[in-house]
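Supplementary Methods S3. Input chains for the assembly prediction are listed below.
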Amino acid sequence: MTPPLPPNWKCPRRVGFLFPHECRRTTPVGCPDCQNGQIDDPYYSRVDRYGYSRYDYYDDAYFFDFETSYEPDAPDAGSMDFTEADGADLAEPGGQFENDMTES
Amino acid sequence: MWLIYALGGGWGHLTRAIALARVAQRDRPVLILTNSPYAEAAAGAAAVRALPPCATADRTRQEVIRAIGECRPECLIVDTFPRGIGGELAGILAGLAARKVLVARDLNPRYVAAARLREFVATHYDLVLVPGAGEGLHMGDRPAAFTTAPWLVRSAHEIPDRDRVRTLLRLTPDEEQCVLVCASGKPDELDWYGAVVRELLAAAPVRLIAAARPPQCPEECWVRYWPAMDLFACASVVVGGAGYNTVAECLAWDVPLVARAWPRAYDRQELRARSAGGRVTLVREPPEAARVALDRMRDHRRREPNFVTGAMEAAVRIASI
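Predicted structure tokens for the full assembly:
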């Protein structure tokens, strides 16, 4: 059973498989990430929680479709790939790092 | 001159820096820049420029930049934090006429992503050294990264003989070995170690190694000594944290470690402990630590030191760039 929460409580966990961000839900009840507060760090090891593990597999037909719809004037597809840097932009790093000079 | 940037709390960054300095200073001057509260306790092992451990973040950043400017190092070796622990190196590395080496201990991957550290390291560093397998996996392979053996502050031939160790630990003739409690980390964590000693007192010989005696630890059990790994020959089991040095030293000695994985902003102690191949048992509360330590200390075989610090290879790698 979830204990009573203080007024204005916001979830301190970080959630998000691709782009970690502050959760900020006002209650863990019904939360699909922490599962009613049972998991301290839902995405600690970045392993999938939903049983799908083949993120790097795509059927060949997928790429054929890309080739046939290629348009020379379209923006370079490579520039639209998500990178670690995009993740950082979305991760809301805020002030949690590089402020405590006694950390380790 | 080589300047080793070793800012950060506790013993970890300082000890790793001393391990490298002791080897490298045979061939050139080496200075360690640290804000560890234990800088004074380690005096004599290497040249240290100690910044006040309680200074504000801004003051520490300013002191770091001033120290680097005054030292004008030919080589800057940065432990763990590519941008500096307060981000203060980010603005000066590009303009610094020095070879730059990163010592890549484990870092919280959230920080790696948030601060874009892979890109930063690839742009600003000439060499990445990983001080032991399993550390630094987050940094990728740019620039060239080399994994060495763990950087121990001693190699086997520097370890005191067993009689000397017995004297240092004040073991009685009927005490062949003891439970060695290595209290390091943050000051507010010392009480945990003292409580472990209190739990063990009636059951086994126990000694606590620490710079300061925790209140619950009797005076006769406290040994003020550094580095603790000198004393592991007479330890049947070690109780400590799961920081880099404690884990690496116990693995080097092949002595069981009963560890509390302390939360850190950057270091993932629990992950390190779980990656240690069963030699580390994680515990949380002092009674549990004592119970597990008594169980693990049944292995009374005599251990002989047989290890070489990875700092020797590291010094050669750095000198070659």
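The CA atoms of residues 37 and 68 of chain A lie 48 Å apart. Confidence is low (pLDDT under 50) at residues 47-93 of chain A.
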